[in-house]
Write a structure and sequence with these properties.
The protein is an alpha+beta fold. It has six helices and seven strands. It has one domain: Aminopeptidase, CATH 3.40.630. Strands 1-2-3-4-5-7-6 form a seven-stranded mixed beta sheet, with helices on both faces. Helix 1 crosses helix 4.
């Protein structure tokens, strides 16, 4: 199947919401994402509109989607830019500009054909292309009970940093 990998547009908030809810309904969600279907479903439309607008601009966030030939969204990845001197998503100080990959998801019927790799590569290429801030590393967190995801990330050169969060369940892995 042919897919176009592209950033979201600000007016596509309802598709962003639907894809996120689908990701959180996936059986792997408890070890793949930090938020829950219940939490996301309760968010007002204004939350999704603002989130999508920010992700479409590519300032501190960029969301990529995979769209099939019929316009259906098959998967996504989000890149968060973390600037030195600011706090990261978890409230920890950022010392070196970095990017964090989050919300990696491909619908089950689109898995197994390399789409996750293409989305992941698009997110990484965008992060490394930033000139301001110049990203010194790309990181993400993987649940200790998600060896499939950890193996996928190792293929891209990500290694454990030793930093853990969420009662030692989420391990930081990074690539410089």
């Amino acid at each position: 199947m042919t897919y176009q990998i592209r950033p979201v547009n600000a007016d596509e908030w309802s598709q962003v919401k639907e894809l996120r809810l689908a990701a959180l309904a996936d059986p792997a969600a408890p070890v793949a994402f930090l938020d829950t279907l219940e939490w996301a479903a309760e968010r007002p439309d204004s939350h999704w509109q603002e989130r999508t607008k920010d992700a479409s601009l590519g300032g501190s966030t960029r969301q990529f989607i995979a769209e099939d030939a019929e316009g259906r969204w098959a998967g996504t990845v989000v890149v968060l830019v973390e600037r030195a001197g600011e706090d990261d998503f978890f409230g920890n100080p950022v010392h070196t500009p970095q990017a964090q990959l989050v919300n990696v998801f491909v619908r089950p019927e689109h898995r197994g054909g390399g789409l996750t790799e293409r989305l992941f590569r698009a997110g990484m290429e965008w992060a490394w292309s930033l000139e301001e801030p110049l990203v010194g590393r790309v990181r993400l967190f993987v649940h200790k009970n998600n060896p499939r995801a950890a193996g996928f990330y190792r293929k891209f050169g990500f290694i454990p940093t030793g930093h853990v969060i969420d009662s030692d369940h989420e391990m930081e892995i990074a690539r410089a």
